[in-house]
């Protein structure tokens, strides 16, 4: 039997809204979540950009010197609708590949 510590995962995918309507509780929770990743040595994979709750999570994770990967579509990069990804960025051709890549980490 494998011990629980041997099954520890190293990546987690987070998806959330780009508009949090200024609810401080949501921002605080997203920021707290982002701070947990470096503490537990878990890499963040998310939909890229720096907006909304995903931006809060990724900034907090990156500020903790954590590995952050944003997966974005070419259209998102060209139109700059999501802002700058907070660390490494993987550009995919379409949303289907975006979600497939994110969930297969």
TrEMBL record:
Cellular-component GO terms for this entry: cytosol; nucleus
SUPFAM superfamilies documented for this protein: MCP/YpsA-like (SSF102405)
Top-level division of the source organism's lineage: Eukaryota
Gene3D superfamilies: 3.40.50.450
Protein's GO biological process: cytokinin biosynthetic process
Molecular-function annotations in GO: hydrolase activity, hydrolyzing N-glycosyl compounds
PANTHER family named among the record's database cross-references: CYTOKININ RIBOSIDE 5'-MONOPHOSPHATE PHOSPHORIBOHYDROLASE, LOG FAMILY PROTEIN YJL055W
Name of the molecule in the record: Uncharacterized protein
Organism: Dipteronia dyeriana
């Amino acid at each position: 039997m494998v011990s629980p510590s041997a099954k520890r995962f190293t990546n987690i995918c987070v998806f959330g809204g780009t508009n949090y309507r200024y609810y401080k509780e949501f921002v605080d929770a997203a920021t707290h979540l982002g701070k947990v990743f470096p503490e537990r040595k878990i890499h963040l994979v998310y939909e890229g950009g720096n907006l909304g709750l995903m931006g809060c999570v990724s900034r907090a994770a990156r500020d903790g010197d954590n590995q952050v990967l944003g997966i974005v579509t070419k259209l998102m990069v060209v139109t700059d609708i999501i802002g700058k990804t907070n660390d490494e960025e993987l550009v995919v051709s379409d949303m289907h590949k975006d979600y497939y890549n994110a969930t297969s980490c």
